[in-house]
Write a sequence for this structure.
């Protein structure tokens, strides 16, 4: 069983930065592909990016390419999402999910709110 807790969200002005963290319990976390997703009000959940256990990255959503960077520290059981040059359209609840296979994920966090003001 893996439990995920996201943190680092908040209110930031357009152009600003935030770093989200996804901290996990469970010794098997380092073996999983972990993804970041987001859901804006009234919209469907959107894939942002995922990182494999090795550190290789699956690819970023076009909307965040060049601005967001995913990384992981398996020793700390944590995955990060560095978000730069934030835009109002990045406003959403951001979720991390572990054991992501490209179609779905077995474990989900509760989410952290990111609000970007114009």
């Amino acid at each position: 069983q893996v439990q995920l807790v996201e943190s680092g969200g908040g209110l930031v002005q357009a152009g600003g930065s935030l770093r989200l963290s996804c901290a996990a319990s469970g010794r098997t976390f380092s073996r999983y592909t972990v993804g970041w997703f987001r859901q804006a009000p009234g919209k469907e959940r959107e894939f942002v990016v995922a990182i494999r256990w090795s550190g290789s990255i699956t690819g970023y959503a076009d909307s965040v390419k060049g601005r967001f960077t995913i990384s992981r520290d398996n020793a700390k059981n944590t995955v990060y999402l560095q978000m730069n040059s934030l835009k109002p359209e990045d406003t959403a609840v951001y979720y991390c999910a572990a054991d992501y296979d490209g179609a779905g994920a077995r474990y989900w966090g509760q989410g952290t709110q990111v609000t970007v003001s114009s």
